């Protein structure tokens, strides 16, 4: 696993000082090692992307679309290997790993279509002043650095890589050191398709590698998905050169359940929102606001549903939820269990790590959690649900919006007019009504407040990698 970096169309050995251990979280044991890229290799990757930019941005939209469709097809051909790797390195149940792969495939297909439409978006601009004509031209922003997280590898990178290539940008991709293997598929596919050397570069590493990339003066843009603490460092790096950034950061999202909702359906939506990927989602709806009239019926059923989730090794068992992906995350979630005990929170389900090998924790439910509790206000990134009751629609909206984050929310109600009204009032980037968290490539992804800057997916994801040029000409 030493040739783990893809630079200028070649696989090369890492020359950095960090050795990256790749773990199976269900066993708590490493199964691969690789050497990180050195700062010099990051320089080489950026230089390769810079050298490739002039030719790549001048390829036709149809040529770029053909490459993107090739990525989608090649991902499909590698299906079983990629699904298995997601299960082994992330601890995802098979059905989740399969959905991740399908998401990545759909993303490349969608941006192939968007690329083909680019010529029609360069158009004449009507002017009120006589004697002049003007036209717009959408151009690639240039060389972009893409830094992606460990909770949805392959997917988050597709959300960035596909629109960047569609726009005509060249890229340097840095995967997470927790899950560095699966993004290598993109380099393998680039080789198979004959993607011009330097258009896609992949460098693996820890904080040193990420800092070398985010501080590099050869980039024209940075796109980062991850924690708020690292995101603020990325933003500082970009600000030194007034470089644009897209940041998709944390969340502490609310799911609001009104008393007219079907109890069994509500339980299904709540469990999905906190247990998918073992709660390791920036979009996890970890704050449950339940109306007084349904709370006594809902909470016992929710307790039973969480306790009945099958938790185990996805490679050897039929499971609903796998382990946490890293030991660091396991220790973090365990620290919140300790905090809950210190705060005297009422625990209806879970509240502890599981006594077995690997990094497993129990699906957890705390009730009547005070608004000043750390568990109510801080992103835990695990299957830990905190519940509070509310009386009125106005109270529900106020408590849902009382957060420094604003990524997503879910509204559950049989009164669709009310559900739409509440959705409009929530200060977030995406709202689901009576649904699990279905994310479609045609819609936008991103948040308000502390949840980030900019949007991914849909046409907004493409525009994030474009600059707008106007050409004005005097007719006299």
Automatic annotation (TrEMBL):
| UniProt-listed CDD domains | ALDH_F10_BADH
PROSITE patterns per UniProt = ALDEHYDE_DEHYDR_GLU (PS00687)
Q: Is Oxidoreductase set as a keyword in this record?
A: yes
Q: Which SUPFAM superfamilies match?
A: ALDH-like (SSF53720)
Q: Give the Aldehyde dehydrogenase domain ranges.
A: 11-471
UniProt cross-references to InterPro entries, sorted A to Z: Ald_DH/histidinol_DH, Ald_DH_C, Ald_DH_CS_GLU, Ald_DH_N, Aldehyde_DH_dom
Q: Which UniProt keywords apply?
A: Oxidoreductase
Q: Which sites are catalytic?
A: 248
Taxonomic superkingdom: Bacteria
**Gene Ontology molecular function, alphabetical:** oxidoreductase activity, acting on the aldehyde or oxo group of donors, NAD or NADP as acceptor
Q: Which Pfam families does this chain map to? A: Aldedh
What family does this belong to? Belongs to the aldehyde dehydrogenase family.
What protein name applies here?
Answer: Aldehyde dehydrogenase
**What does the organism's lineage look like at the top?**
Bacteria, Pseudomonadati, Pseudomonadota, Gammaproteobacteria, Pseudomonadales
């Amino acid at each position: 696993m030493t040739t783990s970096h893809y630079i200028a169309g070649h696989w090369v050995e890492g020359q950095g000082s960090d050795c990256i251990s790749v773990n199976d979280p269900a066993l708590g044991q490493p199964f691969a090692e690789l050497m990180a890229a050195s700062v010099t290799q990051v320089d080489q990757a950026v230089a390769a992307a810079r050298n490739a930019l002039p030719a790549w941005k001048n390829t036709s939209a149809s040529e770029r679309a053909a490459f993107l469709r090739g990525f989608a097809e090649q991902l499909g051909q590698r299906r079983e290997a990629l699904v298995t790797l997601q299960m082994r390195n992330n601890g995802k149940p098979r059905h989740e790993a399969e959905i991740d792969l399908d998401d990545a495939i759909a993303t490349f297909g969608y941006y192939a279509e968007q690329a083909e439409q680019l010529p029609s978006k360069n158009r004449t601009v009507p002017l009120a002043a006589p004697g002049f004509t003007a036209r717009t031209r959408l151009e690639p922003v240039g060389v972009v650095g893409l830094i992606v997280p460990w909770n949805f590898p392959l997917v988050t990178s597709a959300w960035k890589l596909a629109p960047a290539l569609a726009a005509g940008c060249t890229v340097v991709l840095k995967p997470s050191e927790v899950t560095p293997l699966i993004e290598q598929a993109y380099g393998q596919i680039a080789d198979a398709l004959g993607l011009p050397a330097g258009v896609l570069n992949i460098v693996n590493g820890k904080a040193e590698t990420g800092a070398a990339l985010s501080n590099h003066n050869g980039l024209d843009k940075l796109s980062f998905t991850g924690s708020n603490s690292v995101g603020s460092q990325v933003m500082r790096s970009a600000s030194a050169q007034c470089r644009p950034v897209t940041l998709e950061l944390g969340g502490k999202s609310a799911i609001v359940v009104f008393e007219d909702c079907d109890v069994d359906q509500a339980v299904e939506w709540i469990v999905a929102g906190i247990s998918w990927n073992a709660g390791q989602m920036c979009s996890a709806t970890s704050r449950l606001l339940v109306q007084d009239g349904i709370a006594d019926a809902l909470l016992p059923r929710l307790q039973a549903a969480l306790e009945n989730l099958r938790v185990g090794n996805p490679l050897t068992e039929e499971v609903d939820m796998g382990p946490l992906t890293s030991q660091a995350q396991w220790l973090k979630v365990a620290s919140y269990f300790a905090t809950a005990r210190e705060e005297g929170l009422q625990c209806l389900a879970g509240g502890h790590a599981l006594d077995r090998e690997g990094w497993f924790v129990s699906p957890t439910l705390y009730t009547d959690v005070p608004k000043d509790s750390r568990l109510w206000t801080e992103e835990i990134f695990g299957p830990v649900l905190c519940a509070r009751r509310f009386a009125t629609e106005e109270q529900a909206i106020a408590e849902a919006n009382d957060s420094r984050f604003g990524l997503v929310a879910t509204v559950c109600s049989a009164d669709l007019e009310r559900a739409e009204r509440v959705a409009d009032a929530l200060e977030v980037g995406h709202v689901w009504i009576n649904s699990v968290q279905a994310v479609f490539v045609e819609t936008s992804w991103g948040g308000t407040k502390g949840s980030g800057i900019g949007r991914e997916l849909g046409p907004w994801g493409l525009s994030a990698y474009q600059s707008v040029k106007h050409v004005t000409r005097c007719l006299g």
